[in-house]
């Protein structure tokens, strides 16, 4: 059995894929944190579907993009999240 990790997924270029990856990592029992970066998440059917999956996986996304309806991480909070994670994935 593998060791459970604290994983931070940075959704920088492909928000949809980052949501898929984050949800998938929970299957192995890992604690996953997802942070949207680079711009607002597009309002598409695919993203809406992935957002539902995140909800089922108990992942509450955060963002570094001002003006979104998600918890905001400033640069200091993002740095701290990275340091406290066992693994950081940038997608």
Short description:
36% of the residues lie in helices and 20% in strands.
In words, what does this structure look like?
- With 91 residues, the protein is an alpha/beta fold.
- The protein has one domain: Hypothetical Protein Ychn, Chain: A, CATH 3.40.1260.10.
- It contains 3 helices and 4 strands.
- Helix 2 links the parallel strand 2 and strand 3.
- Helix 1 packs parallel to helix 2.
- It is globular, with a radius of gyration of 12 Å.
Task: Describe the SSE topology.
Elements: E1 6-11, H1 15-25, E2 31-36, H2 45-56, E3 62-63, H3 75-84, E4 87-90
Parallel strand pairs: 1-2, 1-4, 2-3
Overall radius of gyration: 12 Å
- Describe the biggest sheet? 4 strands, parallel
Number of helices: 3
Return the string of H and E elements. EHEHEHE
Fill in the CATH topology: Hypothetical Protein Ychn, Chain: A
- Give, in spatial order, the strands making up the sheet with the most strands: 3-2-1-4
Task: List low-pLDDT spans.
Answer: none
End-to-end span in angstroms? 26 Å
In total, the number of strands is 4
Approximate helicity band: 25-40%
Protein name: DsrE/DsrF/DsrH-like protein
Organism: Thioalbus denitrificans
Task: Give a quick set of tags describing it.
alpha/beta, 91 residues, Hypothetical Protein Ychn, Chain: A
């Amino acid at each position: 059995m593998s060791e459970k990790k604290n994983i931070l997924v940075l959704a920088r270029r492909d928000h949809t894929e980052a949501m898929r990856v984050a949800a998938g990592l929970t299957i192995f029992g890992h604690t996953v944190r997802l942070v949207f970066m680079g711009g607002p998440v597009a309002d598409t059917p695919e993203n809406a579907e992935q957002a539902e999956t995140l909800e089922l996986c108990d992942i509450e996304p955060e963002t570094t993009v001002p003006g979104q309806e998600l918890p905001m991480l400033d640069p200091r909070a993002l740095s701290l999240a990275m340091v406290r994670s066992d693994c950081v994935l940038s997608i």
